[in-house]
Amino acid sequence: MYNLSGITDGIHQFLSSFLAPWLTVTVECVLIGVLLLLVYSVLALFYIYYERKICAAFQCRLGPNRVGPLGLLQSVADMFKILTKELIHLKNIDKFLFALAPYLVIIASMLSFAVLPWGNGLQIIDFNIGIFFLVAVSSIGVLGILLAGWSSNNKFTLIGSMRSGAQMVSYELSIGLSVLTMICLAGTMSVGGIVDAQSDLWFIFKGHIPAFIAFCIYLVAGTAETNRGPFDLPEAESELTAGYHTEYSGIHFGFFYLAEYLNLFIVAGVASLLFLGGWMPFHIPGWEGFNHIMDYIPGTLWFLGKAFVLSFIIIWFKWTFPRLRIDQLLTLEWKYLLPINLFNLALMVCIIVCGFTL
Amino acid sequence: MATIQEKVTARFPEATFTTDGILTITVPASQLTELAKMLRYDTDAPMDYLVTIVGMDWKDSLGCIYYLMSSVTNQVVAMRTSTTDREKPMLHSVADLWAVATLFEREVYDFFGIIFIGNPDMRRLFLNVDWVGYPLRKDYDQAPELNPVSVENERQTDDTHVWEQLPDGKIVETTREIFTPEQFVVNIGPQHPATHGVLRFRTAIDGETIQKIDVYMGYIHRGIEKLCEELTYQQTLHYMDRMDYFSAHNYHHGLCMIIEKAAGIEISRRAQVIRVMMDELSRIASHCLFIGTYCMDLGATTMLFYTLRVREQILDIMEKTCGARMTFNYDCIGGVMQDLAPDFVEDVKALLEVIPANLKEYNKIFTGNVIAKGRMTGIGYLSREDAISYSITGPSGRASGWACDMRKIRPYSIYPELDFEQITATEGDSMARFKVRLEEIKQSAHILEQLVDNIPEGECCVKVPKALKLPVGSWFEIVEGCRGAFGVYLESDGSTKPYRLKLAPPCLPLAGVVDHITRGQKIADLITIGGSLDYIVPDMDR
Question: Which of A102, A340, B59, B83 is deepest in the core (most CB within 10 A)?
């Protein structure tokens, strides 16, 4: 397995050889920040293209195919278009909150990037409450949505954001509990620790039944958390036109749009971390030769591959299912997912205590 | 029919009758309520379906013709009454007998200025609140200075007027609020993805629950009835495809039929068959589009593309024969504009081959889906009584268990010879309305199967004089559009232009029932219900 921590350590030593320690940290932070922004926007562009192509395939269409080879430059062109759009200033709105909201949303999703397991040793920050941090920062996003809906001074956005608030707060529970189930299995909240614990077998196999239930619940709750179909009620276009971001224009709208796609990636990334081993290659205990071959595929590819496959499933949901109604959505969470989740947590604990894990 | 006449004569000695196809009972305005009540609650043939109210200006008097149909015997009766007061004409409302009359009377008020005493909502229906004059009156002043094009915000009022007759016979006008100031009112429309056109629902909500809906229409009112009075009969046809643009053929068929009947023109068998085939092709295309857009309203965007594939195929067939893909102007007085395209039969056969597989696919993707079931089952329940009282015809009415297919109950053209079933369901919810349409596609395909190999030879259009004059008289016909019964009332004064052409579209009552069946449901259900009713806004606005 390639360990990229050697490279990052090398860079650190190289910098500290001629810079004061505080300056080293500053330079590294700036470098990482720039890199993060770059990865963030490239991923967003990729995701827009990815979803459009998948959705086109479902709908017997071709999707983008005019700009660049295979339409690859379409999302780049779209990005430039959105950058040049005017920010429309509205009357009678809370200007400060209105401007703040998209940044809250995008900052929440960017912060989550910090703890994703990009590859062996390729992590922005690895500390002992990594997963907890992730759950915490991803909740900031709902604040942005609520503010956006409230500050727009529009009834549609208000209804949209109220729906969103109810929805995200509810589904946070399911996410939290299914994450907790997996933390029980891992015995650590550190992202690096969770990945290392799956070096012999991925958690979804190791924890078999409860892990699989947790995986399903996580996918459902994750889809709801990202406000994607069939849970896209906050922006249900046929009911609320565009929900909480109806009044936004230009890059402010772009931020919401980007955050939505990146949240999709984050949800898929966290699912791959918790259930499919993060960057860890596919290993089967006892099959040394097979495991060795798998190790030749770089961890970053493993991670991205898993995330893209899981995102494909979530995109598939969106383009197949009709939308739920708000009461059905909350019923699903509070009456079904939550009890199942609590039971599942207890089951997982029993299985670990009895040593029934694979 | 004689029995009704006898009964009416017994109670209303002054009533006069004309029995030219449809029994028309003429009574003085003072006896109208009594007569309406008697017909409505008749034991043998209760006239429970109000087809339309035709407002009339006979120059010396203003009045109304009420077309009634019995859901038991399918018999049609007309009541006719008038008032000579042109300054402030007043008639008694029948809104307590037929729920849809509230809406129909508003329309008459809008166009003729006849005030209906007892109607709970006497506002204009289509025109602005400050519109000067009543456009369908014969003495209406069309001068543009009177009603200039406004460049400001739309004028509107939150009040409605009610005229009531006190026990002592005095008539008082009161003003009522539509919404109270405390209510949280959201405008759904006029520009909204789910209203299927420029329609506006003023929706009072409590959280997510709908308290009341005020339907506000008229954004695409073009005054087609008024325009037709200035046109020759051939020209009036061109407006029929601008109403329900998915039922263009059916509406053309209806108007052609009534003009041919009035003029005594016999059309060839070939033209009859072609017309019916085009009607049924339109029905399939329309229902396919309904399924697609309805699923899209519910969030399942992908279905739209699957249904559009079939619709596309039909539009290709139409394009080859009619030369257009929308707003077909194909049926004409005396037959059809031109003969079928050479590969018409082949194309229709190809279409019939793909329909069953497609329907199966729709059911697999959508109908059986657990979310779709949860969204549609039990939502927007409309009972059979309400469906009749609100004049909800077409697939929506049949989903409530009311067998109201005009092709069956008032057969026209060659429909009596054809073998097809009238699809009805008893559930009355959105799911039933959806499924009835799916089934109707099958029945239409079945009709096409019977005809495609049996298109007789012959000419497709008989010769009709350019300046067609109809004899003095009035006629009424109902045909089955894709969304319900389309009634046409034609009155001729012997000239080349209609004296009055009243078009009774199915979509106006559909919009009128929205408030009734959405109360207490969620906002999302408004979309489900509106979508399942499948109204077309240009059709209701005309």
Answer: A102
